[in-house]
Design a protein that fits this description.
The chain is mostly helical. The chain is built from one helix and no strands. The N and C termini lie far apart (about 95 Å). This is BnaC06g41370D protein.
Amino acid sequence: MVRGKIDRRLKRIISDLQSFQTILLNQVETSRLQEKIALEENQLLRKQIESMVGRGSSGPQVDPESSSSV
């Protein structure tokens, strides 16, 4: 009888731990995806800044040929 209670408690604990492990693994996966997105965004921003610095620009460039005020 005592052994049966212990077995049930152990099974419950194992089940709870497996659920917790699943939650943690999902959080790790989400964090990795967020990190990947942040790195890609940083790379894009870095390229945009380098492009602006390379042109000696302090803001967005306006193409003079596309300007409607002649």
